[in-house]
Design brief:
The model has no long low-confidence stretch (mean pLDDT 94). The two termini are 14 Å apart. Strand 4 and strand 5 form a beta hairpin. The protein has one domain: STM4215-like. Helices cover 22% and strands 49% of the residues. Strands 1-2-3-5-4 form a five-stranded mixed beta sheet.
Length: 136
Amino acid sequence: MLNLTTAIYGRLAGSALSARIANRLYKGQAPAGATYPYAVFLVVTDTPDHDFSNDFEDVIVQFSLFSITSGTTEIEGMFTDLKTLYDEKSFTVIGSTLIWMRRGTTVFQVEDHITPTGTQKVFCYHCDFEILTSLD
């Protein structure tokens, strides 16, 4: 899983999404008081698979995007950047061969987040990606 994490961060480096979130991509959860906008990713499932000659890992990773601007322009831009960066794109995962990374279910919502200044309305996208790799 460490190699997949490294690949996700490596693909982010220098991208439009990285610039938009000021490189604030966190694994698991954002630290308390994190500056908006930011993104979080986490592994939802990791299922091993095998056919007669290959071993595979089928992983669902959820990316969550967060913005506190008064309109949806920023969060929509973040979502577009996320799709451009990861959906059906090729990149290197050390120790594996990436077969695909493709977008699945996406949910847009408004959440209440507790911040140091009180409760704020936050625009959020939660987007699942399926990542299938064969083990080298």
